[in-house]
Design a protein that fits this description.
The chain is α/β, with parallel strands linked by helices. It is built from 7 helices and 9 strands, in the order E-H-E-H-H-E-H-E-H-E-H-E-H-E-E-E. It has a single domain, classed as Dihydrofolate Reductase, subunit A, CATH 3.40.430.10. It binds 1,4-dihydronicotinamide adenine dinucleotide (NAI) and the ligand Nc1nc(O)c(N)c(N[C@@H]2O[C@H](COP(=O)(O)O)[C@@H](O)[C@H]2O)n1. Its EC number is 1.1.1.302.
Length: 226
C-alpha cells in the first residue's frame, strides 16, 4: 500500500518559498513551526529533494521533546524516516539529515547515480534505486509502502513537489502564507519546473480549511482525483 502524501510549504504573500538565490527565509512564525512539527511527528516519513538538502541542510527531525516522547510511547521511532529524493546521489555524507538524530534514512537515486557515491551513502542510509534519469516517485512510494510507511510528509522544494503533483501522487497540500514579499521571477514556488500548459493537466484542489496563524494564513487543500 502506498503512503498518503502530504505536502507542506511556507510561502511569502507573493508565493515564493525562498529567495532567487535559494537562500532559506523564515516565513513561518513560532505557532506555524509548532504546527509543522506536529504534522511531521504524525507522519511515518518526511521527504525533501536534493535541492533543499544542498540549499538549507535541513535535519527534518521532530523538534519538540514532548512529541518525540509521544512517538516513543506509541512504539514509533523518535523521528520519522527521513527521505531524500536525490537522482545523482549528491547528498553530502555530513549533511544534517544524515547525522542529526537517530533513525532510518532513505536516499532515492536514479540509475544515473555514480556507483561510488551510492556505495558511500549506503553506509548511512538505505538506498532505493528507482528510475533511469529522474527518480521514479511512484516506485519510491511503492518501496516506502513495503517498508510499512503509511504517511509521507513532503517538505519541498518546489521541483520535488511539482514532481509529486505531476505524477498524481500528492493527496493533501498545506500552504502557510506569511506576511512578507520576497519577489523575484526566479525565486522558488510551490510547483517549479516546466509547469503545465493545458488546463486539463492542471491539478484541481478542494479547499478543506483556512486558519489564521501567526501573521499569516494556513490553507489546507485536498487534491482532487481525476
Ligand atoms: N519555504 C518552504 O517551506 C521550503 C522552501 N524550500 C526552498 O526550496 C528551494 C529548493 O527547491 P528546489 O531547488 O526546487 O529543489 P528540490 O528540493 O525540489 O529538489 C529538486 C531536485 O530533486 C531531484 N529530483 C530527482 N528526481 C526528481 C523527481 N522525480 N521530481 C523532482 N525532482 C527530482 C532533482 O535533482 C531536482 O533538481 C530552497 O531554496 C529551499 O530553501 C524547500 C523546502 C521548504
Ligand atoms: N514550514 C516552514 N516555514 C518556513 O518559514 C521555512 N523556512 C521552512 N523551510 C523548510 O523547513 C525545513 C527545515 O528543516 P529543519 O528545521 O532543519 O529540520 C527545510 O526543509 C526548509 O526548507 N518551512
Amino acid at each position: 500500500m502506498r503512503p498518503r502524501v502530504i505536502v507542506n510549504v511556507a510561502m511569502s504573500a507573493d508565493g515564493k518559498l525562498s529567495t532567487r538565490e535559494r537562500r532559506q527565509v523564515k516565513i513561518s512564525g513560532n505557532e506555524d513551526f509548532a504546527r509543522v512539527d506536529r504534522l511531521k511527528a504524525g507522519c511515518d516519513a518526511v521527504a525533501v529533494g536534493i535541492g533543499t538538502v544542498l540549499a538549507d541542510d535541513p535535519s527534518l527531525t521532530v523538534k519538540s521533546p514532548d512529541l518525540r516522547a509521544e512517538r516513543q510511547r506509541e512504539g514509533r521511532p523518535e523521528h520519522p524516516v527521513r527521505v531524500v529524493i536525490d537522482g545523482r546521489a549528491r547528498t553530502p555524507p555530513d549533511a544534517s539529515i544524515l547525522v542529526k538524530g537517530d533513525g532510518l534514512r532513505v536516499i532515492a537515486v536514479s540509475e544515473r547515480a555514480d556507483p561510488a557515491k551510492v556505495e558511500a551513502l549506503r553506509a548511512k542510509a538505505a538506498v532505493i534505486t528507482a528510475g533511469k534519469d529522474e527518480v521514479d516517485l511512484s516506485r519510491v512510494l511503492d518501496e516506502l509502502g513495503q517498508m510499512g510507511i503509511r504517511s509521507l510528509m513532503v517538505e519541498g522544494g518546489g521541483t520535488l513537489i511539482a514532481g509529486f503533483i505531476r505524477a498524481g501522487l500528492a493527496d493533501e497540500i498545506y500552504t502557510y502564507i506569511g506576511s512578507i514579499v520576497i519577489g523575484g521571477k526566479d525565486a522558488p514556488t510551490l510547483a517549479d519546473g516546466g509547469g503545465w500548459i493545458r488546463e486539463s493537466d492542471f491539478a484541481r484542489l478542494v479547499l478543506a480549511d483556512v486558519t489564521r496563524i501567526d501573521d499569516g494564513v494556513l490553507l489546507h487543500w485536498m487534491v482532487k482525483r481525476t
